[in-house]
Amino acid sequence: xxxxxxxxxxxxxxxxxxxxxxxxxxxxxxxxxxxxSGCGKTTTLRMINRMVEPTSxxxxxxxxxxxxxxxxxxxxxxxxxxxxxxxFPHRTVLDNIATVPLLLGWSRRKARARAAExxxxxxxxAESGKRYPNQLSGGQQQRVGVARALGADPPVLLMDExxxxxxxxxxxxxxxxxxxLQKELHKTIVFVTHDIEEAVxxxxxxxxxxTGGVLAQFDSPERLLAxxxxxxxxxxxxxxxxxxxxxxxxxxxxxxxxxxxxxxxxPVSVAxxxxxxxxxxxxxxxxxxxxxxxGALPAGGTLADVELKxxxxxxxxxxxxxxxxxxxxxxxxARLAVALDTDGTAVGVAGAQELTGGAR
Length: 360
Ligand code: ADP
Description:
Layout: E1 2-10, E2 16-25, E3 30-34, H1 41-48, E4 56-61, E5 64-65, H2 71-76, E6 78-81, H3 93-97, H4 99-103, H5 108-121, H6 138-149, E7 156-160, H7 168-185, E8 188-193, H8 196-202, E9 205-210, E10 214-219, H9 221-226, H10 231-237, H11 241-245, E11 261-263, H12 268-273, E12 278-282, E13 288-293, E14 315-316, H13 322-331, E15 336-340, E16 346-351, H14 352-358
Parallel strand pairs: 3-8, 3-9, 6-7, 7-8, 11-12, 14-15
Antiparallel strand pairs: 1-2, 1-4, 4-5, 9-10, 12-13, 15-16
The structure holds adenosine-5'-diphosphate (ADP).
Adenosine-5'-diphosphate (ADP) binds next to α1.
């Protein structure tokens, strides 16, 4: 849909901002451009709406070289959202959102009706339309920025670090909101961020750039984390990528063992022989009752007589990811996650260590 063919941008001072970039961005998906500061992400983004012209190479949109399209016409089909929302301070929120429809010659009434619709779409209450931007929180201003970019219902949305200036909690909310919006709107979104977490959270596809404007890897988030192309990408996606990758592994794919699973009627002497530091005690229907610590078992009797520790949240084999399994393991006294079938029966356990080290 958006295609870069051997695109380079050299600035007059001699900086190569983008170096021989070839890339094809899918229609209707979120492509994230990520990398450390100064690696050419913004320059790449701005070459899509011709705010920056390439020194060489071709950018095309739906098969058409964008140099052949008159810039104002091109931009009508491309929404643009920037870091501080870039709202007009002396216009109300509603008028800010109505900017593009008005520029397109819509009547005031129609433009305002569209703005009110967009306000609702981005999750803001109708009465905030009468306010001025500085009367809104940073997160709300960003929502207005998104609404304004959607004014003329452009098929393409460019977003340059749109959520970087707000605190992490609001940022998380805005990310969730964008994912929700995108499910409804199916825009072709190009999203710039320096934050790999954000990239993995939002991107259907991720382009990792390195300094010098070189594309280091272009892949799905899953593959990026599993198979970084080189040391630079590996370093950038972080040491803890093994943990983040778990979000993409299904609960049903977690390697399980059943060593510590024992029915409540098991005699303590037999339970000790299992050689496990912790034992998961099950009721008659194999539902977990709780953990018994082997070292604290009484001299005789069965596991039914033992005081148990709560077995923790467990994880669902069907609905959860391996990431939920890791959380469950870390919250359990035994450091073991209990895998649960849909009927609540225990199927096996997985250890935190195997999950972070061995999961594929
Ligand atoms: P990023 O978005 O990854 O932080 P940019 O695309 O903004 O990177 O910048 C890439 C490189 O190009 C940087 O070295 C930057 O200093 C340089 N650069 C960006 N814009 C200009 C400009 N207008 N004139 C000269 N150099 C620029």
